[in-house]
Design a protein that fits this description.
By secondary structure, this protein is mostly beta strands. It has one domain. It is about 0% helix and about 50% strand. It contains no helices and seven strands. Strands 3, 4, 5, 6 and 7 form a five-stranded antiparallel β-sheet that branches. A two-stranded antiparallel sheet has the order 1-2.
């Protein structure tokens, strides 16, 4: 699956692939939309992957590319599993 960002142009939309999910620590099966924080980082969730129950990820700019940082891996224990949506309270 892919994570994309849309930018509007005069006659349509242009999509740019920011990250190809591997199913490893970065997760798999992105389900929800993207959330942009105040510092222009992009946050996303993946329904599976990580340790098997989904992840929360941050995509941050690095030069002309993006760096993906897993922020949380759902364990299937006392935390919820398989996130379907993501709400960002406030980026620090």
């Amino acid at each position: 699956m892919l994570t994309v960002v849309a930018t509007q142009v005069v006659q349509g939309h242009t999509f740019t692939v920011l990250h190809n999910f591997t199913g490893g620590p970065d997760g798999a099966t992105p389900y929800a939309g993207l959330t942009m924080g105040k510092a222009a980082n992009i946050y996303a969730t993946a329904y599976s992957g990580g340790v098997g129950y989904g992840t929360v990820l941050k995509l941050g700019r690095s030069g002309s590319g993006w760096v993906v940082t897993p922020l949380y891996k759902f364990t299937g224990g006392n935390d919820p599993t398989n996130p379907l949506r993501f709400g960002l309270a406030e980026e620090q």
